[in-house]
Amino acid sequence: MQAVLVTGGSRGIGRAVVERLAGDGATVVFSYAADERAARQVEEACGGRAVAVRADAADHDEVERLFTTADKVFAVRAVGPLSALVNNAGVIDHAPIEELTPERFERVMAVNVRGAFFAVQAAAHRMADGGRIVTVSSTSTAWPSAGESVYAASKAAIEQLTRVASRELGRRGITVNAVSPGPTDTDMLRASVPPEAVAGVAHMTALGRVGTPADIAAVVALLLSPDAAWLTGQNLVADGGLV
């Protein structure tokens, strides 16, 4: 049975990942930034297989506390040490380059890059040989739009982190991969992209629609499965044939 930690698991893609993995039999500890009500709804939907922990991915101390709490949960439930990490926590800030302030730049980088980096570090210290690490990136690194400079840069950074970590952890049989969703029907997408633009992108994909969180969760579940043991250092583009 897997002992999995998911960052940013209370909504969108993260929630779908938590629910998919818990449904597959894993014990999941997941973090959330602020919305406790949403986090408790995920716990309820998972029938006791998921435990929510409030933690800001940008705060190193909170990331360490998240992993320490997960250790205790896995010990109490006798599921063994951490076997998989899904780095999903992320924020986006749409703005032209000339309008971005240092504070807005630092916030995106702190959550998307520093948070992911130290989560990988914490997982590497705890994870049993043969474990799995998956980080959620974005097709913005290959198909960027105006206003996505800092977001695309942050995702490009974690794609390179994925490649390096796969080299460092490979001798322990730990695989490290990224998943790059295309436009996916989440609150984040709806808040930042007009409906007509979403419809236009849907027509550009090979499959004629935008993705769903469950689509991405299925790819993550694949990478955590035994069948993906020979995949590492890769970035799987899950975009319905857009890029």
Tell me the strand percentage band: 5-15%
Structural class, by secondary structure, is: alpha/beta
Please mark out the parts with pLDDT under 50 across 5 or more consecutive residues, or reply none: none
Please tell me the overall pLDDT.
94
Tell me the distance between the termini: 35 Å
Describe the structure.
The protein has about 240 residues and is of the alpha/beta class. It has one domain (about 5-240): Rossmann fold (3-Layer(aba) Sandwich), CATH 3.40.50.720. About 45% of the residues lie in helices and about 15% in strands. The protein has 8 helices and 7 strands. The protein has helices spanning about 10-25, 35-45, 60-75, 100-125, 150-170, 185-190, 195-205, 215-225, and strands spanning about 5, 25-30, 50-55, 85, 130-135, 175-180, 235-240. It has a 7-stranded parallel β-sheet with strand order 3-2-1-4-5-6-7, sandwiched between helices. Helix 1 packs across helix 8 and helix 3 (about 60-75) packs parallel to helix 4. The longest helix is centred in the middle third of the chain and has 25 residues, at about 100-125. The protein starts with a strand and ends in a 5-residue tail after the last strand. The mean pLDDT is about 95.
